[in-house]
């Protein structure tokens, strides 16, 4: 009897251990869009301290590059932010929001500049007209539902046309009931931008549409009530500029307060989306889709640190992925560039620019270089040009002692 009594608890104990180990094994499996979408793993490497919030950013390898200030409105207490880059017709293009005082007030417009090499830039010019209500001096530079503002939303090369996207809405808060995403078409002959109308009502994207494997376009969507309803993704844009269907990311207003989503296509054709968390968790959230953006897994908090700030990424021609972000959870300083082989787990992180408030990055690849646009204190528009070969030559230094 004693033997049976002792073996019973022993068996139960071993079974419990086996179940724990089995569960741990499941959690330890690498993240996958279908088989393991709930994994929190997004940052890994021998160099990484156990607690990603203890990364010493000053000890990260520093990326060299050519730096240029495109626009500076500090002298007139203006605002410059929402930077977007592209390469079209033999020139580099950059656009941004330019307005009075603090960001996104009545009268804010979109400006742009061009460059032959991504370093020397032309004098800024207006891309959008003055928004409604901005001509009233009593409203200009204020928060008011009676005045509007434009917000830069990125370039889009579609069917041979070069388009610039900008949202327009009332400037009282984020966002007004009249929110709409508009498109402006570049006329090369006359060197001007023409407003060609609304792309989608009640929508502000984060980055311009990108192609899915299905041939459709996709971009993120925030509605005027997105803090309650969550974020969505618009899929379409093939038959016409206005042909879209909207698909929600369930849990994006509950598991977190999702802000400024970004996404890319993974090597296997599935999609990964990243979200800034305005609840202040100090980490990025991630979701996957295996049906071209129609449905999304519940966003999961990853172990990738974040300062609750906008970020930007792209897939390189060699198949790797890069992400530019404010990874320091304490402040928007510095901007770092992280590298991933599969678009899911990043294993390298480099110091890009810092020593001051730097944010709103946009990164693109062209001609063997990375170009990163960003703002300093929301008052300057700046670009750094980096040789891809310089990134590959840098080595990570262990911070495990931390």
Helices, strands, pairings?
Blueprint: H1 2-28, E1 66-72, E2 78-88, E3 91-100, E4 109-115, E5 125-126, E6 148-158, E7 161-170, E8 180-187, E9 192-201, E10 210-211, E11 217-221, H2 226-229, E12 232-236, E13 244-248, E14 258-265, E15 271-277, E16 283-289, E17 300-305, E18 312-315, E19 321-325, E20 335-340, E21 346-353, E22 358-366, E23 369-376, E24 380-387, H3 388-392
General description of the model:
It is globular and about 60 Å long. Helix content is 9%, strand content 42%. It has two domains: 1-30; 42-392, Neuraminidase, CATH 2.120.10. The longest helix has 27 residues, at 2-28. With 402 residues, it is mainly beta. Strand 2 and strand 3 (91-100) form a beta hairpin.
Radius of gyration: 23 Å
The CATH architecture of the largest domain would be 6 Propeller
CATH class of the largest domain: Mainly Beta
Strand residue percentage: 35-45%
Amino-to-carboxy terminus distance? 53 Å
What is the typical, i.e. mean, pLDDT?
93
- Which bin fits the share of residues in helices? under 10%
Trace the largest sheet across and list its strands: 1-24-23-22
**Approximate shape:** globular
Number of domains: 2
CATH topology of the largest domain: Neuraminidase
Q: Number of helix segments?
A: 3
SSE order: HEEEEEEEEEEEHEEEEEEEEEEEEEH
Helix and strand composition category: mainly beta
* Largest sheet geometry: 4 strands, antiparallel
Q: Using DSSP, what is the number of strands?
A: 24
Which ranges are low-confidence, i.e. pLDDT below 50, for 5 or more consecutive residues? 1-7, 11-27
């Amino acid at each position: 009897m004693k033997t049976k009594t002792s073996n019973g608890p022993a068996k139960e104990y071993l079974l419990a251990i086996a179940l724990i180990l089995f569960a741990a094994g499941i959690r330890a499996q690498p993240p996958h869009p279908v088989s393991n979408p709930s994994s929190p793993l997004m940052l890994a490497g021998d160099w990484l301290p156990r607690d990603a919030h203890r990364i010493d950013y000053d000890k990260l390898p520093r990326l060299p590059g050519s730096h240029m200030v495109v626009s500076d409105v500090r002298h007139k207490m203006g605002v410059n932010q929402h930077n977007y880059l592209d390469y079209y017709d033999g020139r580099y293009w950059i656009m941004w929001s330019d307005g009075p005082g603090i960001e996104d007030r009545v009268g804010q417009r979109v400006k742009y500049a061009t460059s032959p090499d991504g370093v020397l830039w032309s004098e800024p010019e207006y891309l959008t007209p003055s928004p409604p209500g901005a001509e009233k001096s009593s409203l200009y530079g204020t928060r008011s539902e009676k005045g509007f503002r434009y917000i830069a939303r990125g370039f889009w090369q579609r069917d041979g046309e070069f388009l610039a996207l900008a949202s327009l809405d009332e400037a009282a808060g984020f966002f007004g009931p009249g929110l709409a995403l508009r498109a402006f078409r570049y006329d090369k002959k006359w060197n001007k931008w023409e407003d060609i109308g609304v792309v989608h009502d009640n929508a502000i994207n984060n980055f311009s549409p990108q192609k899915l494997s299905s041939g459709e376009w996709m971009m993120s969507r925030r509605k005027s009530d997105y803090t309650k309803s969550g974020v969505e993704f618009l899929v379409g844009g093939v038959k016409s500029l206005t042909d879209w269907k909207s698909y929600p990311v369930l849990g994006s207003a509950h598991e977190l307060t999702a802000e400024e989503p970004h996404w890319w296509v993974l090597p296997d054709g599935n999609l990964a989306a990243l979200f800034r968390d305005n609840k202040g968790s100090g980490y990025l959230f991630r979701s996957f889709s295996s049906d071209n953006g129609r449905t999304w897994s519940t966003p999961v908090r990853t172990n990738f640190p974040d300062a609750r700030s906008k970020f930007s990424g792209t897939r390189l021609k060699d198949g790797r992925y890069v992400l530019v972000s404010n990874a320091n959870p304490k402040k928007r300083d510095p901007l770092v560039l992280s590298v991933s082989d599969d678009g899911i787990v990043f294993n390298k992180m480099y110091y890009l620019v810092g020593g001051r408030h730097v944010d709103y990055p946009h990164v693109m690849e062209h001609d063997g270089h990375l170009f990163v646009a960003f703002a300093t204190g929301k008052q300057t528009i700046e670009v750094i040009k980096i040789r891809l070969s310089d990134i590959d030559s840098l080595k990570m230094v262990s911070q495990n002692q931390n």
